C-alpha cells in the first residue's frame, strides 16, 4: 500500500488535550515542528488518524488541518529546518 506525505497543523486550546495530540502524532512523525508534524501514512492510517482525532479534539474550539504534500515538489528549509528525504518508509 502506498504512503503519502502529509503536513498536519493543529491548534489545541487545552494544554491537556494538546499534550495528548502531541503524543498521538509522535509515532507517525517523520519531520516537522511540535504542532506541525509531517507524517508519512497509508490511506487506511490516515482514516484511523482522522477517526481518533475526533475523540481527542474538542471540535468547538480546537483546529486541525491535514494537507497532502506533493513529494515531487522541491522543499526548502530555513534556519534549523530539516526535510524528510527517505525514498521509502517501513513501520516495524
From TrEMBL:
Family classification: Belongs to the CRISPR-associated endoribonuclease Cas2 protein family.
Name of protein: CRISPR-associated endoribonuclease Cas2
Native species: Comamonas nitrativorans
Record key words, sorted: Antiviral defense, Endonuclease, Hydrolase, Magnesium, Metal-binding, Nuclease
The protein's assembly and partners: Homodimer, forms a heterotetramer with a Cas1 homodimer.
Enzyme Commission code(s) on record: 3.1.-.-
Gene3D superfamilies: 3.30.70.240
EC main group: hydrolase
Source species taxonomy: Bacteria, Pseudomonadati, Pseudomonadota, Betaproteobacteria, Burkholderiales
Gene coding for it: cas2
Functional summary from the UniProt entry: CRISPR (clustered regularly interspaced short palindromic repeat), is an adaptive immune system that provides protection against mobile genetic elements (viruses, transposable elements and conjugative plasmids). CRISPR clusters contain sequences complementary to antecedent mobile elements and target invading nucleic acids. CRISPR clusters are transcribed and processed into CRISPR RNA (crRNA). Functions as a ssRNA-specific endoribonuclease. Involved in the integration of spacer DNA into the CRISPR cassette.
Domain of life: Bacteria
SUPFAM superfamilies registered for this protein in UniProt: TTP0101/SSO1404-like
Residues that, per the record, bind Mg(2+): 11
Names of required cofactors: Mg(2+)
Amino acid at each position: 500500500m502506498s504512503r503519502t506525505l502529509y503536513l498536519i497543523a493543529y491548534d489545541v486550546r487545552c494544554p491537556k488535550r494538546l499534550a495528548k495530540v502531541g503524543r498521538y502524532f509522535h509515532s507517525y512523525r517523520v519531520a516537522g515542528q511540535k504542532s506541525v508534524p509531517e507524517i508519512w501514512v497509508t490511506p487506511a492510517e490516515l482514516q484511523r488518524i482522522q477517526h481518533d482525532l475526533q475523540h481527542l479534539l474538542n471540535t468547538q474550539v480546537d483546529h486541525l488541518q491535514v494537507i497532502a504534500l506533493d513529494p515531487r515538489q522541491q522543499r526548502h528549509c530555513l534556519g534549523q529546518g530539516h526535510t524528510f528525504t527517505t525514498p521509502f518508509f517501513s513501520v516495524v
